[in-house]
Amino acid sequence: MTTDLWPQVERLLRESGRSIERPTRYLNHEWGCTYKPDAAYRFCMVYPDTYELGQANQAVRILCNRVNLVEGMAAERAYVPADDMADAMRAAGIPAFSMESCAPIAEFDAVGITLPHELAATNVLQLLDLAGIPLRTENRTENDPLVMGGGPCVLNAEPYAPFFDVLMLGEGEEVLPELLRMHRDMLAQGVSRADMLHAMAKVPGVYVPSLYDVVSEAEAQERGSWIVPKYDDIPTVIEKRIWEGFATSDAYEPQVVPYAELIHDRLNIEILRGCTRGCRFCQAGMMYRPVRERSADNIVAAAIRGLSETGYDEVSLTSLSTTDHSQIEDILRRLNRTFEGTGISVSIPSQRLDSFGVDMAELVAGGKRGGLTFAPEAGTQRLRDVINKNVTEEDLFTAVRASFEAGWRRCKLYFMIGLPTETDDDIKGIASLVQRAYDVAKQATPEGQRGNIRMSASCALFVPKAQTPFQWDGQIAPEEAIRRINLLRNSVKYRAIDIHWHAPDVSQVEAMMSRGGREVADVVEAAWRKGEHFDAWTEKFSLDAWKEACAECGVDFEGTAQRTYDTDYIPPWAHLSLGIQTRYFQRERQLADEAKTTPDCTYEHCTVCGVCMGLGSKIQLQGVRS
After folding, report:
1. How far apart, in Å, do the first and last CA atoms of the chain sit?
2. 70 and 181 in contact (C-beta within 8 Å)?
3. What's the 3-state SS for 530-579?
4. Which domains does the chain have, with CATH numbers?
5. Three-class secondary structure of residue 161 per DSSP
6. Which Gene3D superfamilies match (predicted)?
7. Segment 285-321, tens digit of pLDDT
C-alpha cells in the first residue's frame, strides 16, 4: 500500500495561495497519464528540472511507456519542485512526490533520473534530498530505492558516479525494463543490495560505479584506465546499448497532455535516430550512431493517430537532423495533404544549410514566414573544415537567397567561439560571413520590403565534450573569450546585424563537468550545499559558488576546463565506450589539424568509426539520401 500525499499537497497549495507559482506543476490526472495502482513493482522516472521543462522530454516519455508495458510494473513521473514549492514542502514535512499517484519518491522500488546536461547535476541532489533518499550510494540501505541514471552525461559518468547505484550507457528501451525485471526478481528472492548491484554490473551497457576503484592520474596513464574492477567477473570497459528495433517500431509514442502551457508543448514524432555528419565537436552525433530511419508510412500514421489522441494542433518531426531523412519530402507532402484546411501545423526542429533545407522549411511553413535558423558554426572555410562541418559559404548564401526569395525576412546564424585552432582571422570571418549573407538577403528581397530584413548572429563558447574528437582540447580562458567576442562586435560594420553571445561563466562549469573525473562529484555536492541548483537558470547560477566548491575540494577549476592533452592521454571516461574506436577519434583530431574533412557515411563510404562492426549494428535507411 503506497502513501497518497495528495491531501497534504492540496492543502499546501490552497493555503499557500499566490506564494506558490504555477500550482499546475504539481497536479496529476493530465490527459494521457497511465495509472497502474495494482502493480506490485513501482518505478519513478525523474527529469531533473521543473515540470514545464521536463514534461515534454522524450526520454522520460519513452522509458515510462516501456516500463508500463511490463505486466505487474508501473512507471510514474516526477520533476524537481521550484524553490517556492520546495521551501513550503520542507516546512510542511512533505517529501518529493510522483505525479500520477502523488506518492513519496522514496517509496518506489527504483528511481530513474535522466541526465540531459551538466548543469542538471545539482538538481539531482536537490531531488534526492527532497525525497529523503541518501545522496550517495554508499549511505543507502536495503530499504532505499535503487537509483538509476542514463542520458548524455553518462558519456562521462564520473562526476555523477557516487550518487547513482546504476548507470546505463546508450539507449534505454530494452535495458531499463530488463534491469527492472531483474531487480524485481531479486527483491522477491531476498537478494541483498550489494549482490543485486554485482549482478547488474554484468548486464551489457550497465555501469555500477561503486564496484570500481579509481586510480591516480599517473597510474591511469600507465594502465590505460582510471578504474579497477573490484570483481574479476565485471567488465573493464562498458559498451553502450543500441535498440535495434527502433527503425521498425511504432513511431507513435503515447504522450501526456499537460494542463499548463509548456516549452515544446506539441506532439513529437521521432522520425530517425543518429547523425553521422561527423561534426567533431558534437557529442550527440557520436552518441546516437548508427543512423536508423523509420518509414514514411509509419511516421505519417503516427502523426495522424497522435494528433487524434492528444488534441494537439501541431506535430514536430524530431531527430538530430530531420531534413536528412531519405523520405522527408514525401513525409511532409503527405502530412500537408492530410492536414490541409484543419489548422494543424507541422514543424521541423532545424534547417539543413542548403537549398533543400529551405525547400523543406517552405513545405512546413504554410502561409507563415517566421524566422529561419542556420548553423555555419565557424566564420571561415578553414575552420569549418577543421570542425568537419562539411558546408561552404556558398551553401549558406544559397540557403539565405532561397529563403528570402521565398518570403522569409528574418534569419539567425549560430556560431561557436573558441573552437580548436581558431585565430583572430576566423573571428573576423564571422563578421564578414554574416555581412555578406545580409547582402545576399537584401538582393533577394524586393526593394520595398528590405526594411523588414532582420539578421542576427548568436555565439556560444566552445565546450569540449567527452567522447568526441575534440575531447582532448581545452576551453579558452573566459578573458580570451570576451576579447574574441569584442573583436567580433567591432568587426561587424552593419548596424542592421545583431550580435548575441552567451556569457562564458556557465560554459566554464559545463567544461569542468564534462572533462572532470570522479573527484568532481565532491564539487557537485559542495556546490549544492552552497545553495546551487537550477544552474541552467541564469538568475540561479553563481560562478563564485562553483569556484569556491572546487577550491574546497582541491579541484583545479580552470585546469580541468582549459587544459589541452595529447591524443594519447587517457581521459577519465576511457572505460565508457560508444563503440567508436579511440583511433577514430585520434584520426579525426589529426584531420582537424590538417583542415581535412570526413564524409557522412550515410551519403558516401564507411568511415570506419567502429560502431557498426563493434556493436553488431548497421545503418538503416528507407531510401537514398539526397
Report:
1. 57
2. yes
3. CCCCCCCCHHHCCHHHHHHHHHHHCCCHHHHHHCCCCCCCCCCCCCEECC
4. 5-168+172-239 (3.40.50.280), 240-350+585-625 (3.30.750.210)
5. helix
6. tm_1862 like domain
7. 999 999 999 999 999 999 999 999 999 999 999 999 9
